Amino acid sequence: MFVSGGDPASILHADLDSFYASVEQRDDPSLRGRPVIVGGGVVLAASYEAKAFGVRTAMGGRTARALCPHAIVVPPRMSAYTQASRAVFDVFADTTPLVEALSVDEAFLDVSGLRRVAGTPVQIGARLREQVRDRVGLPITVGIARTKFLAKVASQQAKPDGLLLVPPDRELAFLHPLPVRALWGVGAKTAERLGAHGIETVADVAELSEGMLATLVGGAMGRQLYALAHNIDRRRVVAGARRRSVGAQRALGRGGSAMSAVELDAVVVNLIDRITRRMRAAGRSGRTVVLRLRFDDFSRATRSHTMPRATASTDVVLGAARRLVAAARPLIAERGLTLVGFAVGNIDRDGSEQLELPFTDRPDTTGIDLTVDAIRGRYGNAAVTRGVLVGRDPGLEMPMLPD
Questions:
Q1: What is the pLDDT along the chain (403 residues), one digit of tens a residue?
Q2: Per the annotation, does 7 bind a ligand?
Q3: Record's superkingdom (predicted)?
Q4: Taking the domains of the chain in order of start, what are their residue ranges?
Q5: CATH number attached to the domain at 246-389
Q6: For residue 126, what are the contacts with CB-CB under 8 A and spacing of at least 6?
Q7: What CA–CA distance (Å, rounded) separates 381 from 274?
Q8: Cα separation, 187 vs 141, whole angstroms
């Protein structure tokens, strides 16, 4: 495992532009320069031409087509996106050994110490963008700053297809005029709460004490906002870190609000089935099941349950997941559900599980899980499926992105 140093303005945040849509435009020249929506029922990605009309990721397909009637809707091709992601990360690896992946289409890179062999961070960032364009055929934006937080903000400001350096002596001059939504963790609800007190920009946040912010948004969030508003971010770029959780999520669009309990349970079953299969394939087990929800107003909620022992059993994890959903039902009914996701954390990297005594009341399903995995591995995923999923659209899983 590599850990970055701390040279000024040497952290790059590289972020592919409208990744899925850009792959579609790359592979079909007739789509270039035209509004493209990936996914019909729910928008998985939108080209910048479609975004100009207000189309956004996770928006319902009907709403997106109403905003942009002349958009071209294409089905997702996950294998093409996976191949493109791997090719881009090959470029990252050729740039520096210090690459910290955030998702399939973005990463932090530390280029400190490379000046003599590769040039300045700006030269390295420009060359990275050129190589991604030449080798993979995709546009990518790069932000460069002294901290991870500011590098990510810089890349957001430079989109699409741009490069932006924030010099150390200009950090606060760059950051403070931005709206409060530029701060990590500030969603629509938090921004509304701050706005009610006249706090609209990062500069407004920076003028407040940590204690005052804590009274407005809570202790943990107050500390975070105070630090970020002053560009205090001591996190380093870490490469080679093991995955701390295994997860999957599915966007439901506005139709999620009308889902019956049975329909929502089918989504839960499908996601947990995918997660636990991946865990077993990777030789991992975990103890903590995390439920992530997103609602009509784009607010989010998270619930978690820690089991007494690490497991990769589909039935055991599914039981915990169902209990979390049941506990969250009042919130779902009140606010309308547009996305549901799960992750299993507290990962045991050795995949070890506590064995049950022969007289336990709980049946051991490990053998069944492994048998089903083997059948699917040989004959395809559709060879064996759970009864609740028969005749149902399994939906398209979305990549798990950082909150």
A1: 444 444 578 999 999 999 999 999 999 999 999 999 998 777 889 999 999 999 988 788 889 999 999 999 999 888 899 899 999 999 999 999 999 988 889 999 999 988 888 899 999 999 999 999 999 999 999 999 999 999 999 999 999 999 999 999 999 999 999 999 999 878 778 888 899 999 999 999 999 999 999 988 888 888 999 999 999 998 899 886 555 778 888 888 665 666 788 889 999 999 999 899 888 877 788 889 999 998 877 778 899 999 888 888 899 999 999 999 999 998 888 888 888 999 998 776 554 444 444 444 444 455 566 666 666 555 555 555 665 554 455 555 554 543 3
A2: no
A3: Bacteria
A4: 178-229, 246-389
A5: 3.30.1490.100
A6: 142, 163
A7: 10
A8: 23
The single residue listed with the structure tokens 């190589």 is: 131
> What predicted TM-score, i.e. pTM, was given to this entire model?
0.68
The CA distance from 314 to 280, in Å, is: 10
In 3D, which of 132, 213, 138, 131 has the Cα closest to residue 180? 213
Helix orientation angle between 366-379 and 261-281, rounded to the nearest 10 degrees: 80
Instruction: Return the active site residues.
Output: 106
> Is 105 annotated as a binding-site member?
yes
Angle at 49 (CA atoms; ends 44, 54), nearest 5 degrees: 65
Spatial distance between the Cα atoms of 65 and 87, rounded to a whole number of angstroms: 32
Q: Which long-range contacts (CB under 8 A, 24 or more apart) does 363-366 make?
A: 365/313, 365/314, 365/315, 365/316, 366/313
Asked whether the beta carbons of 9 and 146 are under 8 A apart, the reply is yes
Closest CA to 314 of 389, 392, 400: 389
